[in-house]
Amino acid sequence: MYGVETDVFLKAFTRPRVKVGTEWVNKGQNMEQVQWGVGAMGKAIYARVFHWLVKKCNETLDQKGVDRDHFIGVLDIAGFEIFDVSLSHPFEQFLRVNIFVSYIFHLVISKRIHKIYFIFLIRNYEWNEIYYIFFLCTKQNMLIESFD
């Protein structure tokens, strides 16, 4: 995991090295201390991956000349924390949130395409369903490509 041998990982959690005075010693850990260490490492990895992902999203969505020191260029659905969290499995909640986000994405794209449709009408351009499919597919591909 992460390029570290399993036995090195195990030893680091169960018998970490600490400096006492001028020498290094291996300190014994009980089960609870090991679990705290594993949890802390999990949280640290999650935080680093999250910050990396936000940075990559911001780089992808960046507009030149706009100061965005404290900006996440990703849709954040506020209020999910008030929904029922008594679901039997976190993955089920994850799926429900993603279905809702997909619905919002479709709604936003549909409204955008509707505006484009009216621009076509105003300028007397020909419109057919192929344009709708083209614009919808293009927007979805842009979203997917931004994470590649």
Automatic annotation (TrEMBL):
InterPro entries: Kinesin_motor_dom_sf, Myosin_head_motor_dom-like, P-loop_NTPase. Keywords: Actin-binding, ATP-binding, Coiled coil, Motor protein, Myosin, Nucleotide-binding. The keyword Transferase does not apply. GO terms for biological process: actin filament organization. GO terms for molecular function: actin filament binding; ATP binding; microfilament motor activity. Pfam families: Myosin_head (PF00063). Residues 1-148 form the Myosin motor domain. The keyword ATP-binding applies. GO terms for cellular component: cytoplasm; membrane; myosin complex. Belongs to the TRAFAC class myosin-kinesin ATPase superfamily. Myosin family. This is Myosin motor domain-containing protein. It comes from Anisakis simplex (Herring worm).
